[in-house]
Every structure is written in structure tokens, then in C-alpha cells.
Design brief:
With about 110 residues, the protein is mainly alpha-helical. It is built from six helices and no strands. The longest helix is centred in the last third of the chain and has 33 residues. This is ERAP1-like C-terminal domain-containing protein. Pfam families: ERAP1_C.
Length: about 110
């Protein structure tokens, strides 16, 4: 199921549906696989796809209230940091990339 979720989340056309699903059905997911050692990897799978400031804000809004949940604390904190780093990298390098592309297509 996690592979399915990741595949849909990674697809621009399916990302919103997958993100909505995990948020809307989080309780079901927790009840179904919450005791599994890999449950927290759903959080990491999500973080590995997200790279925009908007998605970072949504990720924080959904997962920060779950930080006190045993077994999720470390994963959530680390994954917030990962998305923050990616957002920062995109912002920091945006101008250089745009300049290089402009030079290449002239």
C-alpha cells in the first residue's frame, strides 16, 4: 500500500488525491498499520516528494500536532527539516538555474 501511495503522490496529476487520502484517512491507516514498524515511513514517503513552501506548510499543519505520538516524533521532526532544506535549496538556486537556462536557449 505504501508503494501505491508513493507512486500516486509522486505523480503531479495524482499528488493532491494521495495527499488528501492520507490526511482524510489517517485514523484508518493508524488503526490498520499503526503498530507496524514501517508505519512512520508513510511520513517519510510524503516528505521525500514534497519540495514547495505550500506543501511544507500543509505538511507541518497536518503532522506537527502528531509530534507527541510515540514512534512518530523523530520521523516528523526529521522530515520537516528535509522539506525545509529542499524548499530553501530551490529558492536559493532558482535565479542561477533560470540564468543558465536563459543562456542555453539564446
Amino acid at each position: 500500500m505504501r508503494a501505491w501511495f508513493r507512486g500516486v503522490l509522486a505523480n503531479d496529476n495524482g499528488q493532491q488525491a494521495a495527499w488528501d487520502w492520507i490526511r482524510n484517512d489517517w485514523q484508518w491507516l493508524e488503526d490498520t498499520v499503526g503498530g507496524d514498524m514501517e508505519f512512520a515511513t508513510y511520513i517519510t514517503v510524503t516528505a521525500n516528494i514534497f519540495h514547495t513552501a505550500d506543501r511544507l506548510a500543509e505538511f507541518k499543519a497536518f503532522f506537527e500536532p502528531k509530534i507527541p505520538t510515540p514512534g512518530l516524533t523523530r520521523e516528523i521532526k526529521m522530515d520537516i527539516s528535509i522539506i525545509e532544506s529542499r524548499v530553501s535549496l530551490v529558492e536559493d538556486e532558482k535565479q542561477a538555474v533560470n540564468t543558465a537556462i536563459e543562456k542555453a536557449i539564446k
